Amino acid sequence: MAIIDVTRPGSKVEQGNLHILTKSQRRLEELFTSMGFQIALGPEAEHEFYNFDALNVPKDHPARDMQDTFFLSDVPETVLRTHCTAVDIHYMEHHEAPLRVLAPGRVYRNESIDATHEAQFYQLDGLVVGKTISLANLKYILGSVVRAFLEDESIKVRFRPGYFPFVEPGVELDISCVHCKTTISRECNVCKGSGWIELLGAGMLHPNVLRAVDIDPKKYSALAFGIGLERLVMLKYGIEDIRNFYDGEIPFLKQF
Amino acid sequence: MKFSYNWLQEYISDPLPPVEELANALGMHSFELEGVEALENGDYLIDWDILPNRSSDCLCYEGVAREIAAVCELRFKPYLQDLQEASGVQRSDEMIDFSLDTDLVPRATKRYVEGITIGPSPDWLRERLESIGQKSINNVVDITNYVMFVTSQPVHAFDYDKLAGGGEARRMSIRHAQDGEVVHTLDGGEYTLDTSMLVVADAEKALDIAGIKGGNNSGVDESTTRIVLSACNYDYAVIRQTSRKLKLTTDASKRYENEVPLCKADRAMALLTHLLESECGARVSPDIIDTAPQISSEVAPITFTLDHTNNLLGLELTAEEVISLLARLEIHTTSTQDGVLRALALPERLDLRIAEDIIEEIGRLYGYTNIPELAIEEGFPIPEINILKQSWYSIGDTLVNLGFYEVYNRSLVASGRVALANALHSEAGNLRDNLHTALLDRVARNSIHSEEPKLFEIGKVFTGISDDGVDEHWSFAGIMGHQKIKDKHKQDIFLQTKGVLETAFHTIGVRNLSWEEAGEEEVIALLRCGDDEIGFVGVNYWEINFEKLIKYIDRSVSYVPPSRFPKIDRDVAVWVPLDIRVRDVRALIEGSGPEKCISTTLFDVYEDIDNNRKSIGFRLVFQCWDQTLSDEYANEQMQKVYKVLQAQEGFEIR
Which of B257, B485, B553, B606 has the fewest C-beta atoms lying within 10 Å of its C-beta? Predict the structure, then answer.
């Protein structure tokens, strides 16, 4: 009988890997699609109207400083989008309420690059328009998705007051610290001992925004949120530097 | 903004909760908590990030104290405003001849004060200012700063005797600066203004950069005995623009940029004069020059309904609960009938304009932590598949199994066809117009990790500007290791690349792509579907317009029942001149019309360079659906093939 050494490593089948941001988008899109969200895409170079004005951010308002924007040299009134909310606006112009839409995509901010900031990153911007949509629904959707994505049913979410020109009420969403869990540690370098991690901004769409797309705010209300993908993925895996996502190094890419 | 815990206590009648609790309470109901710092004297500095919509009323102790009162259910203690009527002081409107020479000042107030003794500030005042990191200058200047931090209304004291003119009333106005007009500021700075900017001026000269910084030609110093107090309101946009142009930001300009409520001028003026009387021996004029005394206290009521409130928040509050919550914020609410409510907020709440603003107040005070998680009851239609993303994922999965790593490269690069107006630096001044350049670079860097790194990317590229704006499209590019490729290996490596792509296309269901020679050194083949050129392939890399590619997806299936009858293979190999293409030979074979031939597959290409020829071999497979084919039948069909091939010049069947 031939002796076969079963402890030898199998013949290597060469495999690469999808980028962790692709896998994460896919998983999040799956979760949102299971809740009825339509995936929508849009241009990265946007007209200022769709990036700011339709979102209730008037021309000289200080709120426009909150997002440091890239402008294009030879194309007037055009910016590199600072969020994907613009895609939601395009979607609402072409679809009747009620609706649920998720716009994933690359966005741009004119910020110095360091371990937690890149000039381009990913956002998943979502919107639900309906007759009885409330902040409680927003909490449910975000809580469910975050728990499923981070694969931890014990994670809690909470809202704090926040401000964005396109939502009112506006909130900040925190998640319970994924590192501390049962005992909140003062040494925790993720939550600094507070037990909570700031994750994303959200709220109920401002009636001006609904009116800008011909949806009657007396009949419909809408919840809106913007998930920063890199931030969520960095929390999930403990990745220390956002630049890793864009440096294209195989030792990083193969790990996920 | 950083707030001193002890200073805040002055405006609350009841003892404040311990500092951590206070900091977190407002962090959960009002602002974002940045941190708490313990000071040496036992006081604390609480740093709350006052959000833009509350910058009008909460960049001051008065506003934040009111928030504390509302959130912690304590009593707000307004500061005292009792003034002594000093007799014998002339009226402000007799001492000052004031006019507004611009539309950009919604309200200006001025008051004449005499009997001032400039000196060091009392301890309590110095302590208050130092606790928030402000330098003490002298009693009058410190009081003006103090009043600004308490009320959010910037105030200024001009030295009356430095104003141009004598004897009769001194002229003062607020006007646009002249082009090139220079102002020397209190801190030794020099600024050249233009007509877009405002100045407070006397009959001869500008006295300050209005709304931003005082000038040193009119400021208070040791010799000052008579002053003009000024509490004005400016259009927020002009202050913002001026501040940006001059690159000058001050505590005053920050507040004006965020709109100071008109009602604050009264309160600031009252507090100001009270303090000057008690601390500096001041005697104030009986009147205040005020360009808009009525406007300040107008407040429009906001109507909202209980249903809308509960629908938006996801709660089940009663009218009584809503009314008492709002009352804590000094928003007086009355209930009409049918659940319609009318709210009257304080005039400084510039952020409360519509029903949703009131509903936000209700929600945050009630506590967002008390809002439950509720699934949406309305049903939803089944979402459509997003073809682009699905194709991305399938092609990605296929490439992964062929050994490829997906990379994400940066969009902002050194060269491209669409330039940024405000790039961070020139290495990132353009939008990328292709993906393969960055992939080539990445492959080089990764060769230390793998002998043959295989990379791909799917992302947006920006190819130019047209009438509709920027031309951007999704591109799909990939590269397979091999930094320097010898000529003799090029055909093989190209075929590997082609193999990868053919597999990828097959996975997503794209058929009928044609490969044509590009005839260039770098670009070997062009990919076309009909007339549409969709991409190119080099020896070991490719770049394809992904949006065009997915247009040609055809997943339709035409089912053919498989035959149970045996197949017959016949091979034919033919020597051809070196410049003959495989496609041409295939076309000849298929064109000769062999019947019942279900497939024609290339099995060999052999180059005999010495004899200037190559051999191309095809395998034909014959099968019939409903009967066994005979060898003779197959041979007959092959005769058709041989005949056509033999007829070609330079062809020789092996």
Answer: B606
DSSP lists the bridge partners of residue B218 as none
ipTM of this predicted structure: 0.92
3-state secondary structure B538-571: ECCEEEEEHHHHHHCECCCCCCCCCCCCCCEEEE
From the CA of A1, how many Å to the nearest CA of chain B?
35
In degrees, rounded to 5, the angle at the alpha carbon of residue A225 between the alpha carbons of residues A221 and A229 is: 160
Query: Under a CB-based contact definition with an 8 Å cutoff, are residues B220 and B209 in contact?
Result: no
CA–CA distance, B404 with B500 (Å, rounded to integer): 10
User: How many other CB atoms are found less than 10 A from the CB of residue B567?
Assistant: 15
> What pLDDT, on a 0 to 100 scale, did the predictor assign at position B84?
62
The pLDDT value given to residue B555: 86
Separation CA A80–CA A106 (nearest Å): 10
Taking the Cβ of residue A184 and every Cβ of chain B, the question of whether any pair is shorter than 8 Å is answered with no
Residues 6+ apart with CB under 8 A from B431: A45, A80, B411, B412, B413, B416, B417, B418, B419, B420, B461, B462, B470, B472
Subunit contact B51:A136, Cβ cutoff 8 A: no
- How confident is chain A (256 residues) per 10-residue block, as mean pLDDT? 84 91 97 96 94 87 66 90 94 93 95 90 96 95 96 95 94 89 66 88 96 93 96 93 94 93
* Residues in chain A within 8 Å Cβ distance of B53: 163
CA distance B57 to chain A (A): 15
| Interface-testing mutation among A82, A134, A147, A254, with chain B (most B C-beta atoms within 10 A) | A134
Q: How many CB pairs under 8 A join A and B?
A: 242
Question: Per residue in B477-505, pLDDT tens?
Answer: 999 987 788 888 888 899 999 999 999 99
pTM: 0.88
Please tell me the least confidently modeled range out of A93-97, A120-124, B266-270, B470-474.
B266-270
Q: In what order do the strands lie in the sheet with B514-517?
A: B405-406, B454-466, B469-480, B541-545, B532-538, B523-529, B514-517
- Give the pLDDT of residue B337: 76
CA distance A165 to A101: 20
Q: Which of B50, B389, B650, B238 is nearest to A39 (CA)?
A: B389
Sort out which chain B residues have CB atoms less than 8 A from A169's CB and list them.
312-313, 356, 359-360, 363-364
Task: Write the single-letter amino acid at B156.
Answer: H
pLDDT of residue B122: 94
CB-based contact B228:B109 (threshold 8 Å): no
Task: Kindly list the residues from chain A whose CB atom is less than 8 angstroms away from the CB atom of residue B445.
Answer: 248-249
Q: Which residues of A touch B389 (CB under 8 A)?
A: 25-26, 29, 39, 41, 104
Residue B388 main-chain phi, psi, to 5 deg = -65, -50
CA distance B455 to B79: 69
Cα angle vertex B79, ends B226, B281, to 5°?
Answer: 25
> Distance (Å, rounded) from C-alpha B99 to C-alpha B184?
23
- Reported as type and span, the H/E element at residue B173 is strand B170-176
- pLDDT attached to residue B188: 87
Summarised one tens digit per residue, pLDDT across range B151-198 is 999 999 999 999 988 777 899 999 999 999 999 998 889 999 999 999
pLDDT at residue number B423: 86
Comparing CB atoms, the residue among A72, A160, A248 nearest residue B368 is: A160
Q: What value does the mean pLDDT take over residues B528-540?
A: 93
